Amino acid sequence: MAGSGSIDSSQMATTVLIVDDDEVFCEELKNVLVDAGFSVRVATDGKNAMEILNRDHELIDVAVIDLNLPHVSGFEVIGAITRRKTAIGILATTGIYKETFLEVAQHLGANIAIRKPEPGEDLGPWVTAIRSILKAEGEMGRVTGTLN
Q: Does residue 18 fall inside a structural domain?
């Protein structure tokens, strides 16, 4: 390892876990987040997300979770995150469920709930939403809200 001394945590990239079975959406969001300076992990189903969270939960800062997932639902993933002592911000999303499902996700512990964008739609607001979760978590603990 080059250099000596400890790593300053402010220099470490914030890690976002994207949990979604839509490969195109995952790739688009991953690219936008990496360009914005985030480190990104991807889980293509709820079971894989649970494995990552069980193994690496202390490394994840924010999880973007689709509610409609194969094997283990996004609601179950949100529940598993909120039961942990490690603070992980949650952005819940859906492209097919009604708005009430986003409200349920917030009730379960999602900081922000937002509809999944149409293909090709600007993902800049997603970066802003993730940053707002991180800022709020850092300043005053968990914050909840809905983005329309």
A: yes
Domain holding 26, by residue range, is 13-135
Inter-residue long-range contacts of 121-127, CB under 8 Å, 24+ positions, other chains counted: 123/28, 123/29, 123/32, 124/32, 126/29, 126/32, 126/33, 126/64, 126/91, 127/32, 127/33, 127/36
pLDDT digits 0-9 by tens, 50-109: 999 999 988 999 999 999 999 999 999 999 999 887 789 999 999 888 888 999 999 999
pTM over 0.85: no
Q: Give domain status of residue 148, yes or no.
A: no
Instruction: Answer yes or no: is 111 within a domain.
Output: yes
Q: What is the widest separation between alpha-carbon atoms in the chain?
A: 52
- Residue 101 inside a domain? The answer is yes
